[in-house]
Amino acid sequence: MLGPVILAASRSDRMRRLISAAPVTKPVVDRFIPGESVDQVVPIIQDLTAKGLEVTMDVVGEDITTPEQATLARDAYLELIDRLKRLELGERAEMSVKLSLFGQALEGGHELALANVRPVVEAAAAIGTTVTLDAEDHTTLDSMFAIHEELRKDFPETGCVIQAYLFRTEADARRLAEAGSRVRLVKGAYKEPAEVAYQQKAETDKAYVRILRILMEGEGYPMIGSHDPRLISIAQELARRAGRKPDEYEFQMLYGIRSDEHLRLAAEGHRMRVYTAYGTDWYGYFMRRLAEKPANLLFFGRSILTKS
């Protein structure tokens, strides 16, 4: 099982330095993270939306150690929103936010993260789009859900992410599957202990289907975060059984993974949103993409061998 090893490496400063310094790394990273600045990703946004796709934008970075860094992260999102305003894409381009980037792990982090994320959500609403709060490791979730609940009082379109591999998630899904809610369901990409999370893929997949059924039968708006062809087919069947129209749920996939499938789903009339990350602090995000899918790791390994 290479996934847990890679996830452990994502927290290693030594591995960060080693991988970042490797000449082959940048071309491979570019497959998943198409730019470091707003100027570099704007053409990507324009290209994806011109193809009938939608996007959710993520400014990568999680290892915040000072309130000043959290403020800079907030400002990076505000800069992004200003550029999205000029593109006039409305809800076709929204944002995903990790609260750790806004200082959640610092002293007084819950209040700090809420104070930093609120102006981002306000600015997003002002241009006709919204924000989804990404889930991180299980120790941060109670804070994330509390911030989500607080933001929804004024901005009910604010979304959140739940992770199928956590034991708690079925209960979270029942609570969240209410009218007006927006919930992205993913398998989960953090190293979690056996006390709180399924450790086997088959168990996680079964949980994913159970939770997706709860969301589809609820009154909210499900967002299916998966590249798994089987789960995508199951999602379509669950939507049909629940009597959902194509605009009453959406698929979400990562930039650089199964791009042909993005276009196929959009061509069939489904809402298909591409999770597109950018920024300079790409290491943790990149390593979790490798851990999520063996094919990603093989792609990286082949690139290293080819370039060496």
Automatic annotation (TrEMBL):
Top-rank lineage group of the source organism: Bacteria
Gene3D superfamilies according to UniProt: 3.20.20.220
Residue ranges of domain Proline dehydrogenase in the record: 45-298
Entry-linked SUPFAM superfamilies: FAD-linked oxidoreductase
Pathway: Amino-acid degradation; L-proline degradation into L-glutamate; L-glutamate from L-proline: step 1/2
Catalytic activity: L-proline + a quinone = (S)-1-pyrroline-5-carboxylate + a quinol + H(+)
Listed Pfam families: Pro_dh (PF01619)
Record InterPro entries: FAD-linked_oxidoreductase-like (IPR029041), PRODH_bac_arc (IPR008219), Proline_DH_dom (IPR002872), Proline_oxidase (IPR015659)
UniProt entry keywords in alphabetical sequence: FAD, Flavoprotein, Nucleotide-binding, Oxidoreductase, Proline metabolism
Enzyme Commission number, as recorded: 1.5.5.2
Cofactor(s) of this protein: FAD
Name of the protein: proline dehydrogenase
Species annotation: Streptomyces phaeochromogenes
